[in-house]
Amino acid sequence: MSAEILIVDDNADIRNILNDLILDHGYKTRVAANFNQALSEIDKKLPDVAILDVKLDKGDNDGIELLSHIKTKNKDVPVIVISGHANIEMAVKSLKHGAFEFIEKPFDQERLLNFVNRAVENYNLKRQNREYETKLFSSYDLIGDSKNISSIKDQIQKISITESRVFINGPSGSGKELIARKIHKQSKRNKKAFVILNGALLDSEKYELELFGEEKDNGIISYGALEKANKGTLLIDQVSEIPLDIQSKILRVLIDQKFKRINGNTDINVDVRLICASNKNLKNEIEIGNFREDLYHRLNVFEINIEPLNQRISDIPLLIKYFSRKIAENYNLKELDIDENNTYLLNHTWPGNVRELRNLIERIAILQPDTKDKISNIIKESLKTDNLSEKITENSLSVPLKEAREKFEKEYLSIQLKKFNGNISKTASFVGMERSALHRKLKGLGIKEFN
């Protein structure tokens, strides 16, 4: 698909020269002769590349204002700034505001065309990377047959068809964003935007701007997350990190279903499904005064709790198999042959949860080890943790044989029970015991059974 270039210049001769030059080289064009026309074209549809004259009909910095406006909509769009009144200060100012290149008038046509070609290549590369990342992430499924994951899958099916607000609670890397995406994908809003706002990554002074947007004196509008997600879904991740004064404004939006942009006088009606996520216990945050209780009850219409990976060991082999296949497909690599019952993998505490496991599989896939021993060595080095037999040996050296054996049996059987999701028959078969004998052994060791 041919790239589209927006040309903005108040000089008709220059507009025509640029238009003919760019059309002759196979690109599509749109043109604007003044500030308001340019603003209208940008708001109507963002171009792939923009060429902006600095000085138009409204003031000396029209092009810089338009550059800033484009960057608030999509920071990846390359903008080439041209000027007949160029100086070092103007060039530096343009580049600071995100210009791809700055060129003086009169310009060399071949040089300008070279800038346009590089800008198109740059934009296409960033767009491909975005599409790849989106495809890679959104293609992931919620994998697991543990009670927790099975329950969450059932919850997603039930709440996706509703408009209820959802609160997702779980540790970092456990899959909260994936759950939110699944809810959106299965909802009636799936054709509309899915927007993410991470409360932990924002500058404390920019929460309001990022949420509500801004109206500037020159008529330029910066849209916030609420408007971007209108008719769709807004995920506020790490919602516990949002300051109390902004929490009260979010509460008002939930009540009124409208808000005003910063410096704006007009009410903006908004229809957004809100999903919030946190790795903190918000009830504790309420008790210590960090979170509004009334907002919590508005957000927590339906709650989903995802457990850390080390509490659902039975999911680990399934995740290993899934990520091995998926990452191999996405990178066009040979599928990995990883032992799904590798002791290091099953015994690791996984502080980074599913994200840590996925990153490990991706690392192995990129390194492309050609033997199971090499794969095992990468796992050992990456996790830097002792396996079960090494831990047992170390812990057993200072205790009597009977006590050491009991410790080993308790830890070994606990892990096997979790691995088989509490299924006594499968566990008994794997460890080589009769079902009734395993029941007695578990009771004798004080291991609680779960079904």
Keywords:
12% strand, 451 residues, 51% helix, 20 helices, 4 domains, Helicase, Ruva Protein, domain 3, Rossmann fold, five-stranded parallel sheet, alpha/beta, single chain, elongated
Characterise this structure.
The chain is of the alpha/beta class and 451 residues long. The protein has four domains: 4-135, Rossmann fold, CATH 3.40.50.2300; 151-306, 3-Layer(aba) Sandwich (Rossmann fold); 310-385, Helicase, Ruva Protein, domain 3 (Orthogonal Bundle), CATH 1.10.8; 389-445, Arc Repressor Mutant, subunit A. Helix content is 51%, strand content 12%. It has helices spanning 12-24, 35-44, 62-73, 88-96, 109-138, 147-160, 176-185, 207-212, 225-228, 244-256, 282-287, 293-299, 315-331, 343-347, 353-367, 372-383, 388-396, 401-419, 424-431, 435-445, and strands at residues 4-8, 28-32, 49-53, 79-83, 101-104, 166-169, 194-198, 214-215, 221-222, 233-237, 258-259, 268-269, 273-278, 302-305. The radius of gyration is 29 Å and the shape is elongated.
